[in-house]
Amino acid sequence: MVLRGIRVTFYGRDCNTPAIRWCKRYLGDLFDVNALEPPLKYDKQSFDLIYAFSIFTHLTEALQIVWMSELPRILVSKGHLIISIRGNAYRNGLSSADRKRYNQGHLVVKEPHIAGSNYCNAYHREDYVRRSLAREFEVIDFIPEGAKGNPPQDVYLLRKKSEGT
Q1: Which overall architecture, per CATH, does domain 35-160 show?
Q2: What confidence tens digit (pLDDT) does each residue in 11-68 have?
Q3: Which residues of 98-118 are buried (b: 16+ CB within 10 A; e: fewer)?
Q4: How many CB atoms lie within 10 A of CB 27?
Q5: Which residues, at least 6 apart from 86, have a Cβ–Cβ distance to it below 8 Å?
Q6: Three-class SS state of 37
């Protein structure tokens, strides 16, 4: 595909087999199923941009950490990662104990035993994302409720740090 004079190739990965089957049928063969844990079957520095919409919202903290270590491997130097997460828009739906942990800057994960499903839900404060989740990246932009779902998710534009920084 060519966008604004630039040749672009889209790849898709997910642990959801039916979703990938649909993508292959309607969007092409560059989509494939991956395991819940890394690694991905891509060479180092394969991508300029990775878009992970509503992925980290369904993973345990341990899985988030290993994925946020894997993604820089397949990004080019100073490549970009866009992620969406459940932030403050979801805070009032948490139990009082979970809301307290969230307000203290901790990640809250509901139903961690079914990680990777839509029933496992993770809630991230901005300071947690900056301090923990995005530690191998520069935060270029943060848009509260920038992904206009129902309710919306927060969006982060991250850039892979240069080697040696």
Answers
A1: 3-Layer(aba) Sandwich (3.40)
A2: 999 999 999 999 999 998 999 999 999 999 999 999 999 999 999 999 999 999 999 9
A3: bbeebeeebbbbeeeeebbee
A4: 12
A5: 57, 121, 122, 123, 124, 153, 154
A6: coil
